[in-house]
Amino acid sequence: MSCLAGCCASLTCGLCTSVASGITKRSARLGYCGLFGASLVLSWLLREIGAPLLKKFPWINDSESYSDEWFRTEAVLRVSLGNFLFFAILSLIMIGVKDQNDKRDSLQHGGWMAKIIIWALLIILVFFFPNALTSVYGILSKFGAGFFLLVQVIILLDATHTWNDSWVAKDEQKWYIALLVVSVGCYLAAFVFPGLLFIWFNPSGQDCGLNVFFLVMTMILAFSFAVIALHPKVNGSLLPASVISVYCAFVCYTGLSSEPRDYECNGLNKSKVVTTGTLVVGMLTTVLSVLYSALRAGSSTTFLSPPSSPKSGERQPFLEADELESGNKEKEKEARPVTYSYMFFHMIFALASMYSAMLLSGWTDNAENSDLIDVGWTSVWVRICTEWVTAGLYIWSLVAPLLFPDREF
What we know:
This protein is mainly α and 409 residues long. It contains 13 helices and no strands. The radius of gyration is 24 Å and the shape is flat.
């Protein structure tokens, strides 16, 4: 184990050194995503092979009742906690940064070797914390992960409306045709996919009323989206309705696939490929969704961007040298506002650290088989509730202007 840890540490240090030297100001946000991705990989590795190592720490292994599943969850929570502390500290440091003349702007984009060292030290440090602290973090992570999922839903709704408005604004027939084709294609998928799920999650000879309810509700929601969006009094469009319908169908599938493998209504319970696929897809989805959430939310005025942030495409230029008159003191360069909220950017990654811990630990439900990723009834209901919240927020975005005509939405 010590040899393996040494090799991993050596490889990580070499990788971090090469990555740090190649990060520029433009790619800084990708650098943070790289650190988050590294924490995910480390969490998974320790989850798979770290239980024997944690048993050697007396302040962690302080009870005879701890199972291997408990040690696996503990390893995931501790790596997540270190990652959370790193981004939470950065978020606090970046509060109030409004322009690029602020000294903290250089901290946001530079000092990568120091950041990587601090990140690694924090992750090592949390393995010396008492178990009670990680238990509290595990409880808080459930709420943080839920908030992260809510932010993702809001960003999805904003993205679909932006997509629709950008195509409509072109005011050309080919773009209207494209809107129709994409909308029809998404709606076909939104109804065909749940239909296929009936085969996998409602096997013959079994009483699977709960699964049938989830699938029927998903199809009803998809139909209701179209009805409400196309109502004459609603300023809606078919494209956002179709995209949200597909998303709800996908979330419903992820919820059903998270059912325990010994549940008779889970048709995927014999598939080893699904187990590996759930891990790979779950990790990739998390990394990509976090990056998009951070970039989108951090640069949106909806999500706490500095009020001085310029609109897309606008930049405040520095004063030209020829504007400085002879004999006068050199004028200070104009303060260029930051283009996104540094504070909220790091807060998204902190919340995502909590979400990744829940994903890898099955929402800390040790009663389930921890050999599988994101499996258990807690995971099922988190997914299903996410689907229903998405549906509720989308319907609200359509009907709110009718209910409150004097307010902007």
